[in-house]
Amino acid sequence: MQHQHYLGSANVDSNFDVGYSEDTNWETKITTVTYNGTSLTETTDYTLNTVPNTITLIPGGGNSALQTAGTADLIISATGYGDASVSQIIGHGAVNKLAITTEPGAPAANGGDLN
Q1: 3-state SS assignment for residue 73
Q2: Residue (of 69, 70, 4, 13) closest to 33 by Cα position
Q3: Which range of residues forms the domain containing residue 68?
């Protein structure tokens, strides 16, 4: 994966692509793909060449490594080649929880408005 480059804005909510220089022989010899030391499963966690010369990572595939915001190494191993790696940032997705930090106060009398 020489001259790898990141395409787009990676976050835990959406699939995202990491590009690499074209080498179809290398692609056919890929044996493992890991992110942050966790093995990824082809078609569930990633696909190859959906977009030419890219690996598409799939956070929605259920792998917690791809669902955790942060920076970690994406490492692709292929028989007969040195490991290809890139430090990949995965950002937070859209807010999906609401936290209430101030609870309403009791009403002055029964049936009254909350303070």
Answers
A1: strand
A2: 4
A3: 5-90
Q: What does the pLDDT look like over 18-68, one tens digit per residue?
A: 988 878 889 899 999 999 999 999 999 999 987 888 999 999 999 999 999
Write out the DSSP string of 4-51.
Answer: -EEES--BTTB-EEEE----HHHHHTEEEEEETTEE--BTTTEEESSS
72 residue type, one letter: A
Q: Determine the Cα angle at 34 with ends 70 and 86, to 5°.
A: 60
Contact 19, 5 (CB under 8 A): yes
User: 98 lies in a domain?
Assistant: no
| Confidence check: pLDDT of 3 > 70 | no
